[in-house]
């Protein structure tokens, strides 16, 4: 399996920020891992054009479950694909919190992504209160069962484990805590999808940075990272790509 370094720019970046993309492509012409940036929807087409013929792939941060129609302000999976995206992040905790996205909605979005030929990166993660209450695996198991479509395959599905309390906070779980959740995810996916689950990529996300990337990537069943803040600077994201390629 090729590992995946995925960057989530969130609601950051303008056309001027595309210079960072040029620097990233120049510094990493042929990384051993896959390299993906998910900018705001406004930048997908421009970033995809800048990334053409390079190792960089481009993705969206959300999509609507329907392919088209009267949904003001929304973007469909087919539109993301048309703009040059290969992946889409779905069910990020910020969307679950800010937009009330449920597991069932995330699942329909993931189905739409697969139908449009996109790879779905489905995000899961417990809140700090849920971890403190000893509910982490219950929450992750429920989100996994409810958010992942039955049609998913190792080629079309990526899971990102992102503890809500680790996103943008500089705090990370212990390596043992990451290992426990990733082993649990692999076991649950194997129960549901059989042997092919061994090839499904499981990303860790939450305050990954150049200084902690190598130790996190050494944890069993960590097949890459979903990176927020550190993906905005090509040097930092490039260092994470290099750590994953080592
Ligand atoms: C994220 O938003 O997916 C994320 C992991 O953010 P950060 O790396 O900034 O914690």
CATH superfamily: Aldolase class I
Mean pLDDT, rounded to whole units?
Answer: 97
Q: In order across it, which strands form the biggest sheet?
A: 1-2-3-4-5-6-7-8
Quote the CATH topology: TIM Barrel
β-strand amount: 15-25%
CATH classification class: Alpha Beta
Distance between the termini: 14 Å
Poorly predicted sequence stretches spanning 5 or more consecutive residues: none
Give the helix proportion (percent range).
40-55%
For the record, the count of structural domains works out to: 1
SS element count, helices: 10
Q: Could you tell me the number of beta strands?
A: 8
Please provide the ordered H/E string of secondary-structure elements.
Answer: EHEHEHEHHEHHEHEHEH
Q: What would you say the CATH architecture is? A: Alpha-Beta Barrel
Output the structural class.
alpha/beta
Bound molecules: phosphoenolpyruvate
State the major sheet: 8 strands, parallel, barrel
Give me a quick take on this structure.
By secondary structure, the protein is an alpha/beta fold. The chain has helices at 18-27, 44-51, 77-83, 93-98, 103-115, 128-132, 136-147, 175-193, 210-217, 234-245, and strands at 4-8, 34-38, 56-60, 87-90, 119-124, 157-161, 201-205, 224-227. An eight-stranded parallel barrel has the order 1-2-3-4-5-6-7-8, surrounded by seven helices.
């Amino acid at each position: 399996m090729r590992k995946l370094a995925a960057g989530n720019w969130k609601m950051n970046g303008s056309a001027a920020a595309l210079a960072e993309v040029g620097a990233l492509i120049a510094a990493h012409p042929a990384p051993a891992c896959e390299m993906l940036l998910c900018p705001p929807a406004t930048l997908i087409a421009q970033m995809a054009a800048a990334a053409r013929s390079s190792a960089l792939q481009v993705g969206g941060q959300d999509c609507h479950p329907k392919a088209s129609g009267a949904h003001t302000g929304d973007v469909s999976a087919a539109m993301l694909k048309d703009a040059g995206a290969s992946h889409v992040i779905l069910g990020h905790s910020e969307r679950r919190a800010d937009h009330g996205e449920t597991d069932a909605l995330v699942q329909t979005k993931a189905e739409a992504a697969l139908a449009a030929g996109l790879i779905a990166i489905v995000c899961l993660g417990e809140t700090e209160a849920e971890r403190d209450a000893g509910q982490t695996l219950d929450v992750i198991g429920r989100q996994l069962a409810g958010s992942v479509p039955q049609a998913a395959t190792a080629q079309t599905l990526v899971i990102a484990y992102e503890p809500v309390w680790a996103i943008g906070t500089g705090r990370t779980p212990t390596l043992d805590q990451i290992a426990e959740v990733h082993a649990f995810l692999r076991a649950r996916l194997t129960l549901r999808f059989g042997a092919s689950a061994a090839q499904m990529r499981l990303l860790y996300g939450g305050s990954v940075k150049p200084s902690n990337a190598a130790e996190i990537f050494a944890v069993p069943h960590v097949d890459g990272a979903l990176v927020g803040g550190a993906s905005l600077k090509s040097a930092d994201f490039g260092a994470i790509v290099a750590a994953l390629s080592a």
